[in-house]
C-alpha cells in the first residue's frame, strides 16, 4: 500500500489487525533466509564491467530496495538511456527456497507501517539492491529515445555497475542528475500526448493529525522528480514490450479503458466536488488538466485509477494484440524485479532475444503460470489497500457521529446507493430508496469504527439543487 502515509501513528492498532486478517507475511521461513544468505555471496561471472558509467538512483529517501539506476548520453539528436535493473535472476535459482517463496507471494505487499518484501532483505536491500556502497550486478537495457519520444531497445547485457549516488525525490537538485534527464522525461511525455495516453499519477494520501483534535485524510502532491523518474521506467518498459512482441513471446500488461458506465459514475463523482467537466470533453481530455496539488482534483485522480477494470498480465498469443488503454500502447513490466515476480522472467526473456538467443524454457513456462499468481497477489494487495483506506476513513470520522454531510449518488445497484461525500474524499454505500445516479443527498454519520474498519451512514433527505455538472474528484473505491 503505497498511497497512504501514517506519520502520526493513528492507524497502528488497525494496521496490526489488517496484517493478521490478511495473513501478511512477517519475515521469511528459515530455509529461505539461508538460501538468501548463500545467494548474496554468489560472485558475478557473466557480467561486463560498466563501472565507468555514471549511474545514479532516484527513489524515496528511505528506500533501500533499489531496482533501477540510470545513466543518459547523447547520440546525435537521440538520447540513449542506460537503464540498470537489479539482476535478481543472477541470485535466485528456479526451484530453490527463495524462488518457491517468491511464487507464493507474487509481489511485495505495502502498508503504511512497512512492507512484506518479495525477497529477504539480504537480497532485496543488500546484495541485489543497486545501492551506492559498492559494485553490483545488474542487467542494463539501453533504450534509444528520438526527438519525438519514440523508443527502441538497442541492447541488453549483464554488467557490473557502481552507482555514484542515492538521490531522493524530495532533495534532488538538477545538478545531481544527468544533464538530459529533464529532456528525456519531456520527450516521453510528448509521445504520451501524441498517443493519447491517459496515465494518472495521483498523489499519496496521508493521515494528518488536526490541531483541534482528530484526523483528516490529506494529499501529498507528487513531486516533479517523481514524475520525471517514472518516465524513464516507462520508456524502458515500452521498448521492452515492443521487442518481446516482435519476437512473439513475453508477458504483457493489459487494461481496458473505463466503460461508459464507469465514465458516467466519474461524472457524478466530479459533480460532487464541484469540478467543471464539460459534457463535450472526454475523460482523456479532462484528466490531462487535473492538478494533483488541488485536494479535490487529487481525489478525482484516485477515482479515475479505480474506475475501470484492473490491469492484468497476459502471455503472448498469436493474433492477439496486448493493449494497455491507459498507456495507449503495448506495455510490459520489467523494471522492478525486487518487488514483482513477473519482472524477473521478462528480464531474462529480453536478455535472450536482445542477444540472439532462444528465450529460456523456464521463462516461457513462467509466462503461462504468472497471470494467475500475479492476479492473486494483486487481489490481496487490493483488499489490503481497501481495508487500510476504510480504516483511515473511520479514524478520520471518529467523534463526528451524528453530523450531516452533503453527498451525491454516483451509482446504484442491488447493494444500495454508492455515494461520494462532497467535502471529503470518502465513498460509501447508503440505503436510499429511489435514489438515482446524480441525486444529491444529505447523510448522517451513524458510526465510525476503526476496530472494524467501517463507517455507516443513513440518508436524511434528498438535498435541493446541486451545482451544474462538473468534473473530477473522488476518493476511495468500493
From TrEMBL:
Give me any GO biological process, just one. Answer: mRNA catabolic process
**PANTHER family given for it?**
DIS3-LIKE EXONUCLEASE 2, RIBONUCLEASE
**What protein name does the entry list?**
Exoribonuclease R
User: Locate the RNB domain: which residues?
Assistant: 47-356
GO MF terms listed in the record are:
RNA binding; RNA nuclease activity
- Pfam families, per the entry: RNase_II_C_S1, RNB
The record's section on SUPFAM superfamilies has: Nucleic acid-binding proteins
What's the source species for this entry? Sphingobium jiangsuense
Amino acid at each position: 500500500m503505497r498511497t497512504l502515509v501514517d506519520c502520526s501513528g493513528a492507524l497502528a492498532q488497525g494496521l496490526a489487525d489488517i496484517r493478521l486478517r490478511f495473513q501478511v507475511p512477517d519475515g521469511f521461513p528459515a530455509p529461505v533466509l539461508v538460501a538468501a544468505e548463500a545467494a548474496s555471496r554468489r560472485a558475478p561471472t557473466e557480467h561486463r564491467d560498466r563501472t565507468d558509467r555514471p549511474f545514479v538512483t532516484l527513489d524515496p529517501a528511505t528506500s533501500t530496495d533499489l531496482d533501477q539506476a540510470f545513466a543518459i548520453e547523447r547520440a546525435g539528436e537521440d538520447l540513449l538511456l542506460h537503464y540498470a535493473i537489479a539482476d535478481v535472476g543472477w541470485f535466485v535459482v528456479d526451484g530453490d527456497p527463495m524462488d518457491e517463496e517468491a511464487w507464493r507471494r507474487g509481489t511485495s505487499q505495502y502498508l503504511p507501517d512497512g512492507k512484506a518484501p518479495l525477497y529477504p532483505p539480504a537480497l532485496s536491500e543488500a546484495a541485489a539492491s543497486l545501492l551506492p556502497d559498492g559494485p553490483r550486478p545488474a542487467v542494463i537495457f539501453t533504450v534509444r529515445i528520438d526527438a519525438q519520444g519514440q523508443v527502441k531497445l538497442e541492447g541488453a547485457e549483464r554488467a557490473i555497475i557502481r552507482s555514484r549516488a542515492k538521490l531522493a525525490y524530495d532533495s534532488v537538485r538538477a545538478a545531481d542528475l544527468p544533464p538530459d534527464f529533464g529532456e528525456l522525461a519531456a520527450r516521453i511525455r510528448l509521445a504520451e500526448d501524441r498517443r493519447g495516453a491517459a496515465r494518472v499519477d495521483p498523489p499519496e494520501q496521508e493521515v494528518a493529525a488536526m490541531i483541534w483534535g482528530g484526523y483528516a485524510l490529506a494529499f501529498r502532491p507528487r513531486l516533479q522528480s517523481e514524475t520525471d523518474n517514472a518516465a524513464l521506467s516507462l520508456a524502458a518498459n515500452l521498448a521492452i514490450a515492443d521487442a518481446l512482441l516482435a519476437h512473439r513471446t513475453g508477458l504483457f500488461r493489459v487494461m481496458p479503458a473505463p466503460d461508459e458506465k464507469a465514465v458516467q459514475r466519474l461524472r457524478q463523482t466530479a459533480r460532487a466536488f464541484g469540478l467543471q467537466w464539460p459534457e463535450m470533453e472526454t475523460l482523456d481530455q479532462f484528466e490531462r488538466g487535473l492538478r494533483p496539488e488541488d485536494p479535490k482534483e487529487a481525489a478525482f485522480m484516485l477515482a479515475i485509477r479505480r474506475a475501470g477494470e484492473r490491469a492484468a498480465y497476459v502471455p503472448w498469443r498469436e493474433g492477439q494484440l496486448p493493449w494497455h488503454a491507459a498507456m495507449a500502447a503495448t506495455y510490459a513490466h520489467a523494471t522492478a524485479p525486487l518487488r514483482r515476480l513477473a519482472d524477473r522472467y521478462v528480464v531474462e526473456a529480453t536478455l535472450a532475444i536482445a542477444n540472439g538467443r532462444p528465450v529460456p524454457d523456464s521463462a516461457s513456462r513462467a509466462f503461462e503460470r504468472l497471470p494467475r499468481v500475479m492476479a492473486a497477489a494483486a487481489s490481496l494487495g487490493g483488499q489490503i489497500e481497501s481495508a487500510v483506506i476504510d480504516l483511515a476513513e473511520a479514524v478520520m470520522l471518529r467523534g463526528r457521529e451524528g453530523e450531516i454531510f452533503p453527498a451525491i449518488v454516483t451509482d446504484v445497484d442491488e447493494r444500495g446507493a454508492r455515494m461520494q461525500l462532497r467535502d471529503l474524499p470518502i465513498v460509501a454505500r447508503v440505503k436510499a430508496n429511489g435514489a438515482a445516479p446524480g441525486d444529491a443527498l444529505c447523510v448522517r454519520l451513524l458510526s465510525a469504527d476503526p476496530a472494524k474498519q467501517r463507517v455507516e451512514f443513513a440518508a436524511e433527505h434528498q438535498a435541493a439543487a446541486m451545482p451544474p455538472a462538473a468534473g473530477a474528484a473522488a476518493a476511495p473505491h468500493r
